[in-house]
Hints:
By secondary structure, the chain is an alpha+beta fold. It has two domains: about 5-200 and about 355-410, FAD/NAD(P)-binding domain (3-Layer(bba) Sandwich); about 200-350, no CATH class. Helices cover about 30% and strands about 25% of the residues. The strands form six sheets. A six-stranded antiparallel β-barrel has the order 13-16-15-14-17-18. A five-stranded parallel sheet has the order 7-2-1-11-20, covered by helices on one side. The chain has a three-stranded antiparallel sheet with strand order 3-6-5. Strand 14 (about 215-225) and strand 15 (about 230-240) form a beta hairpin. Helix 1 packs parallel to helix 5. The longest helix is centred in the C-terminal third of the chain and has 15 residues, at about 395-410. The two termini are about 15 Å apart. The model has no long low-confidence stretch (mean pLDDT about 95).
Amino acid sequence: xxxxxxxxxxxxxxxxxxxxxxxxxxxxxxxxxxxxxxxxxxxxxxxxxxxxxxxxxxxxxxxxxxxxxxxxxxxxxxxxxxxxxxxxxxxxxxxxxxxxxxxxxxxxxxxxxxxxxxxxxxxxxxxxxxxxxxxxxxxxxxxxxxxxxxxxxxxxxxxxxxxxxxxxxxxxxxxxxxxxxxxxxxxxxxxxxxxxxxxxxxxxxxxxxxxxxxxxxxxxxxxxxxxxxxxxxxxxxxxxxxxxxxxxxxxxxxxxxxxxxxxxxxxxxxxxxxxxxxxxxxxxxxxxxxxxxxxxxxxxxxxxxxxxxxxxxxxxxxxxxxxxxxxxxxxxxxxxxxxxxxxxxxxxxxxxxxxxxxxxxxxxxxxxxxxxxxxxxxxxxxxxxxxxxxxxxxxxxxxxxxxxxxxxxx
Length: 410
């Protein structure tokens, strides 16, 4: 007789777990409280879906921030190469981009979602949307069923289960369904939680300098985080100015060093390829070549248009001054702006805007070889609900796929 498996949550981990369990002969029901599956997966990677990262699997340790040792078995059981092959077998061809990030060649996250959903259905998984789980029913320390709550006109229902896989995600992007309800389910059966917080999140700045440059996207810059006057980390790549402060890949990667810290500053080097001496020579050359031009015009060769007025304000250089009239002290202030653009950080954006949630179900209560609960029999956890997280670049999705695969296999 087939085992009855209930999977809660149709995100990356849940879809992988459900499809894998069904492929091994189980009778699988996948419950998703939203009206569609994989809503969060559909918006990852700015809608392109950074499926995984192509670094050697042993190098994942450098990028997994929390509990790599716990994840090691899952990552080696279903690694990044197997993830790429898995999707290519489903018809989703991939390409490796800068930073070893792996994307579908179509640049459409929806292709990844649709392939996963079709694979589940082809394996016989019964998917029920608008089905929010209200309770895990436990008898004699074993899960025996799950109960859904009424949504709209869909009545509450009890699904009997031999095993249950909880893959409800974290607490970020709640509009996609990951609003933290899984944590309540875990606590209700005796699990403890490591307090959750935003793991990869944009940063809010003091003042309005960033806001004045809202919408400007920078490439090939270096940003560093300073806490109480000490540099704690730096990243090279892309960033973005927003209505609240700073965002973009390198800011989000650095955010972990800024969250819940005091006296935090972010410094941006707009010209990292030039040291101070070379930059000064470049400025002198530009000013000589454009000696009669006003500084508001000369700066177009150095900065995006929306940054020029901010630069003039910060350096106190007259916008209408000719380049040949700029004195050494003004040139020094300009170099400082280009090499050391500084922002005071007042905090992170809300956890709802975080890419990934840190914290979650305590991994000491989970069997790393199977993803099974050590508290209640026949309950498994997979994906972001666990106290695991990693850098940006496809690592977090690989964790979801690997832990989901392992749970489904067992």
